[in-house]
Amino acid sequence: MATIFTKIANGEIPSYRVADDERHYAFLDINPVAPGHVLVIPRTEEDYIFNLSEDDYDKLWAFARRVAVAMKKAIPCKRVAVAVLGMEVPHTHIHLVPINNEGDMNFRAPKLSLPTEEMQQIADAIAAEFI
């Protein structure tokens, strides 16, 4: 059975897409820890990032880097932080979070609920910077 992330990448579930290619998909987290929090996934399902083939692992990180560069251009922040937790959904995913201090990356803090219009504006801004 397909994971929720596979369904998102396949367009079966709506998302705020920021970038994609034939092997990867990046979209806004609908329960972000900060505005602009992006999830980057491989299109192939693998639960644990370190079970990816070396080629898939390297390409996933290269794609995530491109997304992070676009995020830094689109969202005022000091850094784009990275986390790989892998506990919520059994599909490899990288969290990219715009931060201005380390406290901005607190996954235990209450998640944000941003209006649809703001989410779409953020997604469009990142997508416009993605090369």
Question: How much of the polypeptide forms β-strand, as a percent range?
Answer: 15-25%
* Largest sheet data: 5 strands, antiparallel
Which geometry do the CA atoms define? Answer: globular
- How would you state the average pLDDT, rounded? 96
**How many beta strands in the DSSP annotation?**
5
Order of helices and strands: HEEEHEEH
**Helix proportion range:** 25-40%
**Separate helix tally:** 3
Structural class call reads alpha+beta
Rg? 14 Å
Distance between the termini: 33 Å
Walk across the major sheet and give the strand order.
Answer: 1-2-3-5-4
Descriptive account of the structure:
Helices cover 31% and strands 19% of the residues. The chain is of the alpha+beta class and 131 residues long. A hairpin with a 3-residue loop joins strand 1 (17-20) and strand 2 (24-28). Helix 2 (54-74) packs across helix 3. The protein starts with a helix and ends with a helix.
List the helices and strands and how they pair.
Elements: H1 4-9, E1 17-20, E2 24-28, E3 38-42, H2 54-74, E4 79-83, E5 94-99, H3 116-129
Antiparallel strand pairs: 1-2, 2-3, 3-5, 4-5
